[in-house]
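pasting Cell cycle protein GpsB for the record, 129 residues
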Amino acid sequence: MDNNESTFNVQLDPKAILDKNFKKVMRGDDPDEVDEFLDQIIKDYEIYNAELDRLSEENARLRSRVDELTKQLSVSKSVAAATPQQPSATATNYDILKRLSNLERHVFGSKLSDGGQASHDDQSRIDQY
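structre below
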């Protein structure tokens, strides 16, 4: 039985219980009619109790989940506050490393092919960085 789809099939409400009249027989109320009515009341109370138990368990589970998520949020906020926010610095560092790598490739690549001597054109390429 899915808890989300449970429905109440309550046959009696408080007014119906209060207003119920039993037929009079020679020695009082009809015992069979009283028993039948009490059986309906018992079934309704069982339904109410089962639903109350289910809702209490769900409430406890949800409260526990809220507490857990609140703790996670608190930890996340403290970690975020302690962590420096430098997204542009990371990009800048990457750009610097990329430019340095290109510069080294131009400088050392030219010197190796020229026998260790850099030409004037190589110097102008270095200056553009």
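The CA atoms of residues 31 and 70 lie 57 Å apart.
The chain has a mean pLDDT of 76.
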